[in-house]
Amino acid sequence: HVLSCQGGLYGNLARWSQRQRKAYRRLQQGKKSNLTEERIKQLEEIGFLWKGHDMKWQQKFNELVAYKKEHGTAYIVGQTGQYSKLADWAKRQREAYKRLQGGKSSSLTKE
Description:
The protein is mainly α. The chain has two domains: about 10-45, no CATH class; about 50-100, no CATH class. Helix content is about 60%, strand content about 0%. The protein has four helices and no strands. It has helices at about 10-30, 35-45, 50-70, 85-100. The longest helix is centred in the middle third of the chain and has 20 residues, at about 50-70. The protein is extended, with a radius of gyration of 17 Å.
């Protein structure tokens, strides 16, 4: 998936990505945009994520996949140090899943 950093070598890519997301939002709002359906399709084909929240979620998901590959489980509880932030994220995902299953508002979707 396409992720970009704000500074360093990828600063220009980050700014360009932000412009694409802004153009996409304008298009979604029915406003004039230079972003075409063909460009949207091309970006989606390479895994471009349209929302910053989606990028962060995907990054943590990828970390969880790597953790599972290394440790044989995706269940992270009570971790400190290196995996503490991933453990916190995983806990929030479990809580969001329970809310979704209970028919309550949740940050997760059924997708």
